[in-house]
Amino acid sequence: MQETTQKEALKRLSYIEGHLAGIRRMIDEDKYCVDVLKQTYAVRRAIEKLEALLLDGHLHTCVVAGVREGREEQVVGELLELYELANK
Amino acid sequence: MQETTQKEALKRLSYIEGHLAGIRRMIDEDKYCVDVLKQTYAVRRAIEKLEALLLDGHLHTCVVAGVREGREEQVVGELLELYELANK
Amino acid sequence: MQETTQKEALKRLSYIEGHLAGIRRMIDEDKYCVDVLKQTYAVRRAIEKLEALLLDGHLHTCVVAGVREGREEQVVGELLELYELANK
Amino acid sequence: MQETTQKEALKRLSYIEGHLAGIRRMIDEDKYCVDVLKQTYAVRRAIEKLEALLLDGHLHTCVVAGVREGREEQVVGELLELYELANK
Q: Based on CB atoms within 10 Å of each CB, which residue in B65, B79, C6, D65 is the most buried?
């Protein structure tokens, strides 16, 4: 992973952790379920943004390098596996 | 929220927090992106299970009570809003 | 289903069918995969809009009536089943 | 697109079209909304399978060729755009 990607990923992770701490407080204080659910959807969006960042780094580095080094079957296979997991 | 739902929700939240701590470690140690992404997909699944639990409780209590008390426009409106957010 | 919902649903279905006919043409003419995939994502969005319409009608009619008639276990159970299917 | 991918894609498209025709009949005959929604979710799954097939072909041919020919910025950029559209 490139250093800028790594730093940005850790920053996004901190944001998600903070968001989850807020959801924990809401459940502890027995807030209205609809409001809690709106927050969990926001966390899902934040995780998808973290994934997009990781995927961006992965495609630009490992995938390009893999194809150049003749390991296209491996890197393409991994991408298809990820696609299937993302849709499950 | 019913007490059993609340306890179960906090338990699932702890699980998600532990999972995220594991992802933080993986990023810190610069693990292979594909393996990190597989873990973020697993976190998404865990959040969806938390949401299903919260929705279950909400439908059985607030929605049923709302319809009985003549506030069906409010509770139905909220459910449609949640559906739209979930699909975004 | 109310008549306005039914008419609107059939209209949206025609739109989706037309869109799929366009995708068939693109595949027949061997268009660039990326462009075909953009269209299939648009079809997914159109199906989600059809679902939102059907769900809206269902909540306002069958669910409200079901709760009033004491069949809340049935209607709530069906909604949770749909939620699970939507997330699969 | 390779000929086998194209044939398989058209076959899956026919399946989706047939499924939609069934949904049209259900709406025409005013079937229970919950049953119609279960069918629209099945269509979503079928479209995702078509997408996985197209993506598989795209990665093995255009993406690998693009990287080899030095057009990695283009092919990687397109994949990230598709990922974002798929998550919207």
A: B79
To test the contact with chain C by mutation, choose from B53, B55, B59, B73 the residue with the greatest count of C C-beta atoms within 10 A, namely B59
Residue pair C30/D6 in contact (Cβ under 8 Å)? The answer is yes
Which of A1, A10, A36, A37 would you mutate first to test chain B, the one with the most B CBs within 10 A?
A37
Cβ–Cβ under 8 Å, residues B52 and C84: yes
What secondary structure does DSSP assign to B3-63, as a single string? HHHHHHHHHHHHHHHHHHHHHHHHHHTT--HHHHHHHHHHHHHHHHHHHHHHHHHHIIIII
Section D33-60 average pLDDT: 95
d(CA B12, CA C54): 32
Regarding an ipTM greater than 0.90, the answer is yes
Residues of chain C with pLDDT below 70 are none
- DSSP characters for D18-48? HHHHHHHHHHHTT--HHHHHHHHHHHHHHHH
Give the chain C residue whose CA is nearest to the CA of D32: C1
3-class DSSP state of C64: helix
Which residue does chain A place closest to D71, by CA atoms? A64
Whether A67 contacts D43, CB under 8 Å: no
Q: Which amino acid is at B30?
A: D
Task: Tell me which residue of D20, D9, D86, D81 sits closest to D50, measured CA to CA.
Answer: D9
CA distance B84 to chain C (A): 8
Distance in angstroms (rounded) separating the CA atoms of residues C17 and D30? 19
Residue whose structure tokens are 């992404």 = B37
- Other Cβ atoms less than 10 A from the Cβ of A7: the count is 12
Token code pair at residue A27: 């459940």
Rounded distance between C-alpha atoms, residue B55 and residue A64, angstroms? 43
